[in-house]
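Thread: Modeling a multi-component assembly for a lab meeting

Hi all, long-time lurker, first post. My supervisor asked me to bring a structural picture of a complex we are working on to next week's group meeting, and I have zero experience with this. I have the sequence lines for every component (1234 residues in total). Could someone generate the structure of the whole assembly? Inputs are pasted exactly as I received them:
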Amino acid sequence: MEFQTTSWLLTCLIFAPMAAMVLIGLLAALGPLLKLPRPAVDHGSRVLALLGAAVTLVLTAIVWLGFDSSMPRLAEMQGYPHLQFVQHAVWIQAFNIEYFVGVDGLSITMVMLTALISFIAVLASLPWGIPKDDHKHFSRRGVPGYMALIMLLESAMLGVFCSMDFFLFYVFWELMLLPMYFLIGIWGGPRREYAAIKFFLYTLAGSVLMLLAMIGLYYASDETRLIDGSYAAHTFDMVKLAVENDFSSMALVSPKLVWLGLFIAFAIKIPMFPFHTWLPDAHVEAPTPISVILAGILLKMGTYGILRVNYTILPDETIWARYGIAVFGVINIVYAAFVCMAQRDLKKLIAYSSVSHMGFVLLGMAALTDPGINGAVYQMWNHGIISPALFLIAGVIYDRAHHRRIDGFGGLARTVPEYTGLVGLAFMASLGLPGLNGFISEALCFIGAFSVFTVLTIVAASGVIITAAYYLWTMQRMFLGPLNEQYKDLTDVNWRERLTLYPLMALMIVLGFYPMPILDLMKDSLHELVAPLARAAGM
Amino acid sequence: MLETNLLWLIPGLPLLGAVLSGLLGKPLQRRFGKKAISAVSVLLPWASFGVAAWCFIQLPEGGSLHDRLWTWIAIGPLEVDLAFAMDPLSAMMALAVSLVGSLIHVYSIGYMADDEGYWRYFSFLNLFMFSMLLLVLGDNLLLMFVGWEGVGLCSYLLIGFWYRDLVNARAGMKAFVVNRIGDFGFLVGLLLLFWSLGGEWMDGAYRVNGGAFSLNFRDLPDLVAAAADKQLWGVPVLTLAGIFLFIGACGKSAQIPLYVWLPDAMAGPTPVSALIHAATMVTAGVYMVARMNFLYVHSPTAMTVVALVGAVTALFAATIGVFQYDIKKVLAYSTVSQLGYMFIGVGVGAFWAGSYHLLTHAFFKACLFLCAGSVIMAMHHEQDMRKMGGLGKTMPITRWTYWYACVAISGFPIASGFFSKDEILFQAYNAGSLMVPGWIIWLLGFVAAGLTAFYMWRSYFMTFTGPAVSVGGHEPQEQRPVITVVLGALAVGAFAMSFIGIPALWLDSPPQLEHFLAPVFSAAEGLERVFAPGAGHGVEWGLMGASIGIALLGLAFAWWLYRGRKSELPARLMAAMPRAHKLVYNKYYVDEIYDTTAVRGFLGLSRLSGWFDSKVIDGLVNLCGAAARGFAWIDGAIDRYAVDGAVNGLAWLVTRAGGKLRRVQTGRLTTYLAGLVAGVLIFVILTRFLLDVYA
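Re: Modeling a multi-component assembly
Sure thing. I ran the full set together rather than chain by chain. Output:
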């Protein structure tokens, strides 16, 4: 089966932020030559980054409007979700590497999330509202470099979600690592170097596994033809790897080992217990907008990768491993929730809550049922809305109080009522209050998983109690009770913070009562993705 | 079934009020005063009541109204609409909730008049009305769950309304978390139910993608009936689902073992206690069981659990109520106890009787709480009954409405409480479908009825009779009309509710409410009678007489011990049995037991997890890092001499890079740019080069 080029739109979308990066680079290089003052260059790069993110957002909207979620399945396409906005060309002939991008219902959901959250992250990187004398604030240090790196990061993330060629996927995957490393390592908090290196090495270790697995799959794949008709002994084409190849009898290594390699690489990103400890450190040290991107988008790459690669290319091994996935999902949910209770740092608590909530995705996807997998991907989306809001919230208080110790506040509701309301809403969404978006995805995960993993699902459902406990306890310690006099002059949220927070808050409410725009987008593709596995598993 | 497009307005209007006063309330209040808030937030619930009444009039005989907004969730076999339905049961609930709720909104105008958080209060109260009406009118279980947790949230917000006092904040949190334990049960029940309904069974394995889930209350009875034989872990799945759903009801409706939050919830403003923690929210569990009657009739086990827990709670809470001195605490334990009665009703299969008691209780208990609120205001926020007395002279309206509500709750046949409670007790005695003989349930309820009469009249005598007290130098005064009118209205309601439940024993026709609700509870007619064949009229008369007798006994005791506050007897009696008194006075130390076991254990486990995560898991990671660095150092040492300046091992390199980066961070843009370009170049060259070599 072949997907022919139908559109340039995705390419424009992926490289729009990179174009902004180049422009920022030019500005930064020419600025001193043209004797531009430094603030002018800083402002210019901010505007350029904002433009780059905005253009990407507009292009994403165009793709969204043009995306036909119910595109009828073609007979020969069976077993793979239908790709749209495809661009397909030979890239490196010698290794049968193609430039192959396209989106199905799963990808487009993630692309939309990426464009939205990146835009919000750029907004959150503006120094608007930060005291003028706070020169050390991340939004005032090395602005062109920072903005350029964010743009590079956005391109890489979009690339990962659009790539349908495994090699291209890998290139974007690695490309994402570099800007993230620098963004944490340079603009981060006091222990930024430790955190950045930990993040970098951990992910890199996963990447090595992925690289090996990828090469293994490549050499085990059958001969085929590239898009230009030329002969290829092997292929990186993920659609072909999935549909035309059967890896159940691989010569070199056991396919289960390949599956595990890929899975661990992705599991580190999710992050799945026991590979999760890089996340709290990275979050605590990263500046707010980087935490936003990290929690909102980067974590989704892990689960996206499992669905895109493990599920389609190695379905038999996925069926073999699904109990394991579910067990680790439940460990994530319950264990991380307990760890949350024990945290003293607000940002660390939110980081662990991310670990907990990503567990739902694992549980839902392992069930191989329609409600389960839709719940899983919708949970990815919802977590991508809620956790950025939570990190923005942590940023608000850190910018004012310069610390994040939960016990170090008290009674703040009196001085910052609007902020308190926003925190309350985000906490409620995160603890899965029905009527807000998080509930729908959690409920779908439970409904989907219950028929397959009855006891595990009941254990997982007990997580709702712990989650409520740690959020409400945090709420109580920070905002209720007698006012901590030290913070009686705290200022409420400013307009920059409103601009970043209110859109997310609105989405939490709207998508709680009207989730179908997102669910409709993905459900047919996800059915295509999971139905062959469910059939093979005898469900 | 009749389609309409009005039902959404019933929850929608209070929601509008909540949004308006939530978002604009603060500036509105500052600019136009509290009247502006009242105009929005008090009138909209009344409008909601008006719509509910209009829909009630249009309700077809024995049928229902239906209003579909949009598809909420549609995934594979699961299809859930955002839709509302009104059948006789939800019509009764919607009317009661919106009427009592609106009255309490009016009362709140007076009660909260001096509070600067007026707008916030009304926003929360409106939001509560929205959630509660959503719970009642939601067309399917999942939507009901939205309302179910929504009322829990509002309860949290309103208990902790005066959040500056940490005690209130803690009480709110306790309520929410204990409710969440219940909600966990509800969720599992929900999952069990879906699971038993959807799909099909083949070769002992469950096929999920075949069948269709429907969660509409209309479709559920048939689907549930079809699932009656299914088992899980050797237990009928409907029994499991029924019991787990009931755990949810225990949380929301404050039954053993999850009742502990309700007495603490009295920390909220008194109108909130009246509306949420007496009249409406706490009855949601009873409503849910009544709503799911078609499920429970399939499982005698689950019904027995419901009835027994209800009966034990009724008695248990009543004993605690006897020794409380805080007037609101007395009423709180009385609520727990009365909710127990309702569960007896629905548990023995007399779903209409349980619902009827829910309705009558909404009026007389709201009346009691609001009277208490009136007293508390007059006493300048003093709640201890030992410091009250003689208020009857200066507060006549409060006194007589409280008196009438006491008549109703203790079960004298001139008020609605008598009819509803007696029907429950008779049905319990008569119950033949349970795993235990009905008379056991009856006996528990019967004893509790005597205690109820005693502690209610005790509170009445302690508060309103005896020598007058003075507060701040002058006598406590009657409240403004905005408050007393509401008290009167609720007392009238408590009287009027009698007429719809007069038993067939007195008239020749069955009670009107029973007839009205019959279509909803048609499944209950099929209940098998395992034990008694059903008692006759003679027994019913006899039980009725016994009920009145024990209520009189309770009243007489209270009169004897507390009337006029003259007697020394109570103190002497307590002194005679110090241990027993202490045990009951301290509420059997249940809170303390929970604290030392569940709460401590939970916190301990979380601390252990935190320690394990940072020391063991992360410790291992750091150990790996250290090992790699050590290895890299050795490797580097070798390399430095062997291959000068060659690749020194990744860990070492990156560690160094971190150090270098500090110098890179010069703020000079050109440096960054150069670095970036160089990086990309190196990447491209390396990949090209490596690939060529590899090929």
